[in-house]
Amino acid sequence: MPSACVPLVPQPPTITLQSPKDYIFDPREHIIIHCEAKGNPQPSFRWARNGTDFDVKSDSKIVMNPGSGTLDIDIIGGKAEAYEGTYQCTAENEHGKALTNKIVIRQSRSPLWPKERNEAMVRQKGAPLVLRCQPPAGLPPPVIFWMDNSELQLDERVSQALNGDLYFSNVLPEDARDDYICYARFPHTQTIQQKQPISVKKTLTLFNQKSSLIFFLLLCSDNPQGERRPRILLPSEPTSTKMVLKGVLLQLECIAEGLPTPDVSWQKVGGELPNNRMALHNFGKILQISDVNESDAGDYRCTAKNKLGLVHHVIKVAVKAAPFWISAPKNLILAPNETGILTCRVNGSPKPKISWFVNGVPIESESRKVDEDTVIISNVQIGSSAVYQCNASNEFGYVMANAFVSVLAEPPKMLTPPNLVYQVITNSPAFLDCSSFGSPIPTISWFKDGRISIENGDQYVIHENGTLEIMVAQVLNTGKYTCVATNNLGMRENSVNLEVKEPTRILEQPKYKVVQRGMSARFDCKVKHDKSLIPIMTWLKDRGELPDDERFEVDSDSLTIKNVVEGDEGTYTCMMKTSLDQDSASAVLTVVGIPVGRKPDPPTDLELTDQAERSVQLTWTPGDENNSPILSFVVQYEDSLHHKGLWVNLTEVDGSKTTTQLELSPYVYYSFRVLARNNVGYSEPSNPSSQYRTNPAAPDENPSNVQGVGTKPDNMVISWMPLTGYQANGPGLKYKVHWKRRDMDESWSSQNVVDKSQLVVDGTPTYVPYEIKVQALNDYGNGPDPEIAIGYSGEDVPLSAPEKVQVKVQDGTLAEVHWKPVNASSVRGQLQGYKVWFLRDSCRITIFRFDMQEKVIVFSGDQSHGQIPDLQPFSIYRLSIKVLNNKGEGPSSSNQTFETPEGVPGPPSFLNVVSPGLDSLSLEWGPPVNNNGRLTGYTLRYQPVNHSAEQGFVHELNFFANETATTLDNLNTSMLYKFYLSAKTIKGSGPTITEEAFTAMDTGETMCINSNSFPSIANTIGKEDWTKEWVNGTHSHMIKSLKPGMSYKVRVVATDEAERMHSSKEVPVTVPESSLPPFYLLIFIFGQHAGLLCHMFPSGFLFLYPAVPNRQVDIATQGWFIGLMCAIALLILVLLIVCFIKRNKGGKYPVKEKEDAHQDPEIQPMKEDDGTFGEYSDMEDHKPLKGSRTPSNGTVRRDESDDSLVDYGEGGDGQFNEDGSFIGQYSGKKEKDTHEGNESSEAPSPVNAMNSFV
C-alpha cells in the first residue's frame, strides 16, 4: 500500500524525480540537475562528481534548491567546461539511502568547419559524383542540409546520405554551379555552420589571338558517358553489417549510380518487412524500421535496377539490447521476524549482469541472500530498514532501481474517513472503501448492519485493498456496512452507509410539432425520480443552450415557445439530471407559413357497376384530404392472367369525381385500385376491387413496324413488332405473313408464324421490291386487314463501272470530272453514289519530291459530275470512278490521266542577312518548298527605314532561278533596311517573305563571339538585372542606344532542343566619352561550320549587363587637350624654323642656348619612324588614356579580367572566312598620314594609346 497515505510512519527515501542519464547543456543557460525524493523523516541530499563527493556550498555558482537535491548551476559568463562530468545524487535519512542514476553532464558544442580548399570538380555528363560534407563533430550531432542559392531539391537522381554527403547518380549539365554548400545546424545552440562552397563545372578554355577587340570562347567537348548498369555507391563494401539496439530506429541506406537513374527497392531475405513499422525515405534509398525488436534481425537486400540491369547489396542486421525492465523491484513493508523477497527481472542482449547494493554499498550480510535477480531478506528486525539498489548492465548500458524495505510493528490504522455515505442507482455497482495500514498487513472483514458477515460470492467481492464491491445494487442492499482490520498487534473498524436510489426516468417525452408561424409551441416532459434526490431540468436547442429570449418559457415539466418564427425550428431536448444519474428525450419543431397538409388518405369502398363486354363503371369513396384538397384520382389495374403483380395506370379522374367509366380489353382478368393526389403527394393505394374478367375476342390490331430487308443477295427477312398479351385479345395468338413481288403480276404467298417476330424468305432475286403485310389472329378469329409495306430482297455489289469519264482542268488546283451513270439494274442495290479515286502520279519537274498519297471523294446520289479541289499545280494525276451501294463498291472505270497547269510559286524557304558591313549587307535565301512550275527567278525589293518607321525609296533587283545569294553595296551606314523577296514562274510572282537588318556604324564597337559550343548555364544566369535582346538564330546582332561613358558586359545565351541553356563568357565593353549618341555595338557570332549555330541552337539571345558610369576620362578626346596640343605643336614648329634659319646664318640665340643647357622634359623630339610629333602628358594630373584602365596608384596595368583588350594588341580589319578562321585584323581603318592626327573617327587601339602617351 502507498506509504505516502500514512502519516507519521517511518519510511526510507524514495527518488521521485531525476535528470536523464545523458544531459547536454547550452552554455548560455543554467545547468539544472534534478534530484527529488520523499521519505519520513524528510531526506537530506548530497552529490558526487566523477565518483568523488563534493561540497555544493563550496562553489558560489552552485545552488541547491531548498527541500530537494536539485542543483542550479549558473555558468553564464564562466567556464562551462569546468562543470562537465558524471554526477550522482544520494537522498538519505535514518532508514536508508536512495541513489539516482549516474548523470553525465556535457556541454553542447558547435565547432567551426576546419579551413580547407575545395578544388573545382570537373565531371563528364552522365558520370557519378559525390560531394563530401564531413561536418565537424558537434554535440549533439548536427542536422545536415545542402543549398546553392536556395535549398537544394533532392530527387531519385540527387540524394543526401545519412552522413551528409551529396550523391549524384549521374550528372547533368544543369548540375554545374559554383555554390554547392553543406550546412550543419546545431539544435542546442541554434547555430548554423557552413562548409566552403564546392564548384562543379565543365572546363572552359579561352583562346587568345593578337587582336584588340576579338574574343574566342571555346568550350571543351562534354564527352558524355553512355548508358550503363547500376553500381552501388553506398555502402561501398561488397557486403555490410549493421548493429541496432532494441527499441530504437533502424536506418538502412543504399545509394546507387547508373544511367538511366536506377530505382531502389528493399526486401528481407527469408522474411517479410514489418509494414506497420516500416517507412521508405529519400526516394526509397533509406529503409526505416521503428521500435526495433529481435524479429527484425536478418539479411536485408537492396536492389538497384534500370533498363540495362540490376545489382544487389546485402546488409546483415544484428539486434542487440541495452538492459530493460521486465519487472523492477517493489518496496516492502515487513513486520519483525518476517522474510521479504526483492526481485529484479531484466533482459538484454547480451544478457545483463545484475548487481545488488544496499544503501549504495554491495550486499555482504549473511542475512541477505543474493541469487542472481533475487534478494531474500530473512528474519528482519526493527532498525534493519534500508534501501536496496538493483543494477543491471551490459556493454550497451545499464538500468538501476531503488526499492526500500521498511521494518515496522504497527497495529491497524484506518485511512478511510468514518461514517461515509455512498449513494448509487438501482442496478448499478457499488464500491465501499476500507483503506487501512498496519504491520503486519491487516486482514479485512465486512459486516452488514453490525451482524451479518459478508463473504466473497456472486453478489459481493472483497478486493485486496479492502474495498467491498456490490456488483448489482438493489434497494434491499441499503444499510450500514462495517469494515474490520485485524493483525497480531490489534484491531480497528470503520462503518459506512449505502443508499440505493430509484433511477431518473422521463415518463412523457416531448413530441414532434408542426406549428404555424406566429402561433405557440409547447413541449411536455414529465419525469419520475427518487424523492430524496433533487432534480434539475434543462432544455437544449440543437444541443446548445436555449436562446436568451423571453418568448421561451420553461416550467417544471414543459417548454413553451410563444410567437414562433422560422429561426425557432430545430431539435429541442429535455434533460433531467440528479447528482447520481440523468435522462433525456428530444423532439423536432417545424415552423410553416400556412396550415400544413399531409398526403390524403387512400380511397375506400371500391365498387364495379354497369358491367359490359368492353367496359365497366368504377365507384369509390375518397379518404381524408388532410388539409390539402384532392386534385385528382389515378385508377390502376392489374392483369392477373398475363402480368400478375404489375399495376398499370389506366386513367386519371378529376378530384371532384368519385366514379368513372373504364374501357376494357378482351381476355383480361382485371383488378382495380385508386390513388388520391393533393399538393403534398399521392396517397397510399386503396384496397383492390373485386376481379372482373372480360371474354376473349379476335385481335383488334395487327403488328406494327413491318419491314422487309435482305441479309443475303437471295433472301428477304420480314420482321414486325409483336403484340403484347394484353393486345392478343384471346389465346392462340399467331401471325399470318403475306408477300409478293411488286414489279410482277403474281399471287400472294403466305405463311403462319407462332411465337416469332420475323420470317426469312429464301430464293429471292437480288434487290427487287416486295409488297408485305402481316395479320394477327387467335383462336377467336382474325384481326383487321393489314396495311401493305414495301420491302426489298438482299443487295449485291454493283456489276458495272461508270463510262465516258472525262476530266476538265479549271486551273492549277481545281478540275471537274464527268461520267456516264451506270444502268440502274447493274447497281443491284440502293445507289449510294460514286467514289472518285485520284493520285498525283508525278511532278512535271522530276527533280522535286511529291506526295503520292491516294485521295478519294464520294459524290452521293445519282450524280454524273463533280469537282476535285486542292490539286497541286504543274502535276500529272490519274483518276478512276466506282459506283457504290450498301453492299460495297463496283468495278473501277479505266484510269484517266490529266495534267494541271503551272501556278505561282510558294514563298522562298528562308531569307537571311549575313555579314553586315558599314555600307553593305549580304543576303542568302532558299528556293520555295513548292515551285508549282518552272522557277524563272527571284525579285528582291529593299528600302531604308528611319527611326520614325517612315520607309524610303524602294529598290528592286531581279535574279535568275539559280541565284540564291547577293551582296548589296553603297548602303547607308547605321541604317535599318527592310527586304522583300519573292519567287517567280511564268504565271507570276508568289508570296513575299521579309527581313530587316542594320548596317554597321563606323563610330561603334565591334566584337565577335565564338558559339560553337557553350557551357550549360541552367539556373545560373544570376541575380543581376540583365537586359535581354533576342537574336533568333542569326550570326550577328547590333545593340543600339548605348550611352557614352558607360561600361557594359555582354554575353550570348542559347537554348538547345532539350531546353537547356548555354552561355558564352562575359565580354567587357566601354563606350567612349566623346562618342555622339546613338552608339551601336555590332556583335558577330560565328562557328567552325556555316550554319552550325542555327543547327545546334535554334534560338538564342543576348544579355546586356546594366550600364555602369565610366569614371575614366579619356584625355586624348577632350577638346581643350587637342587645342593645347595643336598650339604646342605650332609653337615648336615656329621655334624649329627660327632655329634652322639662325643656324644657317651661324648665330646663336638665347632660346637655343637655353634649350641646349636645360632641355624641357615635357617636349619630345619628332619621331622619325612615323613622322608624328611627340605627345604631351600632364604628370600632375595623370588622366586615364582611351582604351586603357588606370588604377588609383597611377600605374597602368592590364585589367583583372582575362578578356582585357590589352592582351590582344593592335588590330586590323576583322574578317573571317567560311570556316570561322581568323584572316585579318579588326581595328578599323588603316594607319592615317601624319597630318591627319587624331581626326579619325575610328577608336585607337589600347596599345597605340599606350605607346603614344608615354
TrEMBL record:
Molecular function via GO: cell-cell adhesion mediator activity
GO cellular component: a single term: plasma membrane
Bias type Polar residues, positions: 683-694, 1240-1254
GO BP terms: axon guidance; brain development
Keywords assigned: Cell adhesion, Cell membrane, Cell projection, Disulfide bond, Glycoprotein, Immunoglobulin domain, Membrane, Repeat, Signal, Transmembrane, Transmembrane helix
Gene3D superfamilies the UniProt entry points to: Immunoglobulins
Record's keyword annotation contains Transmembrane helix: yes
TM annotation in the entry: 1120-1141
Membrane topology: Single-pass type I membrane protein
Domain of life (superkingdom): Eukaryota
A Pfam family recorded for this sequence: Ig_3
Domain annotation Ig-like: ranges: 13-100, 114-199, 230-318, 323-406, 412-499, 503-590
Function: Neural cell adhesion molecule involved in the dynamics of cell adhesion and in the generation of transmembrane signals at tyrosine kinase receptors. During brain development, critical in multiple processes, including neuronal migration, axonal growth and fasciculation, and synaptogenesis. In the mature brain, plays a role in the dynamics of neuronal structure and function, including synaptic plasticity.
Subunit organization: Interacts with SHTN1; the interaction occurs in axonal growth cones. Interacts with isoform 2 of BSG.
Protein name as annotated: Neural cell adhesion molecule L1
